[in-house]
């Protein structure tokens, strides 16, 4: 009986904790001031931004995934943590034993993917009024730990622990439903205010989107790559991962005042992926020898 009920108790506890932190973030809880965010009095919605991107091999990411027995998302979160750590410690002058953290806002579409075809069939049959249009977005506050590790794979292990913890929570569903009720009760302006507070009190936005697995065309023109990003949020750094065919594109949207050497930050992502891949190769070789 205990083994059956324990996962539900953990799910309930994690959800309560995450919801409390979510509410506290909107009300008063701010990330520590680091190189990655403006001071509280300097937050602006329209800074001068730069957009940079780089491509990675999806096969390399899957190789790391298989070597570490984790998911693609775990690898990307770990590589992001490694890159941010490299940039932070190089530019802040902090010691290798220093530890800090920052939080990202991760938007999650809570609409079941399996229901999309059912909605399409309803539209074709003329029952479009029964379809709930648009995405059903919830929010997850995903922490990134900044630290210097001798083993690059330590970032992926830490990321897997963090992501697994978030999977055992109904934070995204709860925040989605709460946001809908809040907007209906208090209006769009109140909803926009809470939305801005959430982004202003965190450090980065993070997303990982799955794209087409084969090359596509748009109006007869072949699509070479897909590199989405956004503008208008108060955070100084926005990280997007977008897969397409056999590549993954990383897109950074950066506040130019906070990241004057934004190209160096992008290079840190490339270097971190390379170090993690090399470490995963050594791990695979050692396992084969055993």
TrEMBL record:
One of its GO terms (cellular component) is plasma membrane. Keywords: Membrane, Transmembrane, Transmembrane helix. Residues 133-277 form the O-acyltransferase WSD1 C-terminal domain. InterPro entries: O-acyltransferase_WSD1-like, O-acyltransferase_WSD1_C. GO terms for molecular function: O-acyltransferase activity. The chain crosses the membrane at residues 6-29. One of its GO terms (biological process) is triglyceride biosynthetic process. This is O-acyltransferase WSD1 C-terminal domain-containing protein. It comes from Aegilops tauschii subsp. strangulata (Goatgrass).
């Amino acid at each position: 009986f205990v083994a059956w009920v324990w996962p539900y108790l953990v799910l309930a506890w994690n959800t309560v904790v995450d919801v409390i932190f979510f509410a506290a973030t909107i009300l008063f809880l701010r990330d520590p001031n680091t190189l990655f965010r403006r001071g509280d009095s300097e937050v602006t919605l329209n800074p001068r931004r730069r957009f940079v991107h780089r491509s990675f091999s999806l096969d390399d990411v899957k190789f790391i995934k298989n070597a570490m027995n984790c998911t693609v998302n775990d690898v990307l979160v770990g590589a992001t943590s490694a890159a941010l750590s490299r940039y932070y410690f190089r530019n802040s002058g902090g010691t290798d034993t220093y530890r800090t953290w920052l939080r990202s806002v991760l938007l999650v579409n809570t609409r079941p993917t399996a229901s999309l075809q059912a909605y399409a069939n309803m539209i074709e049959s003329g029952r479009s009024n029964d379809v709930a249009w648009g995405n059903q977005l919830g929010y997850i506050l995903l922490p990134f730990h900044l630290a210097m590790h001798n083993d690059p794979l330590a970032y992926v292990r830490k990321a897997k622990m963090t992501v697994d913890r978030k999977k055992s929570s109904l934070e995204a569903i709860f925040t989605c439903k709460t946001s809908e009720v809040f907007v209906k009760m208090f209006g769009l302006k109140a909803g926009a205010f809470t939305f801005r507070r959430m982004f202003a009190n965190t450090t980065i936005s993070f997303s990982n989107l799955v794209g087409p697995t084969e090359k596509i065309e748009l109006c007869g023109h072949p699509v070479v790559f897909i590199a989405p990003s956004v503008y208008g949020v108060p955070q100084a750094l926005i990280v997007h991962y977008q897969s397409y065919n056999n590549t993954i594109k990383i897109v950074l949207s950066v506040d130019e005042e906070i990241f004057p050497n934004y190209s160096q930050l992008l290079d840190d992502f490339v270097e971190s992926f390379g170090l993690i891949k090399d470490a995963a190769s050594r791990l695979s070789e050692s396992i084969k020898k055993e």
